[in-house]
Design brief:
It catalyses: a CDP-1,2-diacyl-sn-glycerol + sn-glycerol 3-phosphate = a 1,2-diacyl-sn-glycero-3-phospho-(1'-sn-glycero-3'-phosphate) + CMP + H(+). The protein is mostly helical and 183 residues long. The chain has helices at residues 3-23, 29-53, 59-84, 87-112, 123-141, 147-178. 81% of the residues lie in helices and 0% in strands.
Amino acid sequence: MNLPNLLTLSRIIMIPVFVVVFFLPMQWSYTVSASIFALAALTDWLDGYLARKLDQSTPFGAFLDPVADKLMVAVALAVLIQEYSSILLTIPATIIIGREIVISALREWMAEIGSRASVAVSYIGKIKTTAQMASIVGLLASPPGQLLSDVSIAVLYIAAALTLWSMWLYLKAAWPELLPKND
């Protein structure tokens, strides 16, 4: 067990803490749950940076990191869907969650056939993740109907659009393997 893997595990451990804090009947629960999510998002960047910098990449870390990311985002979006009870938030949230399921399945299948590299993380995916994390932090920090939450919903739509774009790029790269031409 190395530091990058411990940071990844800490992100998973933060998920139930974040949920409990969010639902506490206290005014500060928005700010504290947003801070917990922001800390978890920071560990997402930090664990990858440290794994590369310290040459501590492991198969366990390569497996666990995307799992932790997807769990963290899916749980936060589920909490926000419940809190906001709004189609305006539910649409981009379900696009993001659905894309994560599709791409996870695609990556698993591509790995099985030995073509995992053709669906590696793209630059668009990194921009999408940044927009997604920023919008989720803003949504968690502010009760529905406030300016920050309205701006954060707009950013979530940008993240959802980037999500669809990056999914299209992944599917395009995998298309020759998904539907090979019969000669």
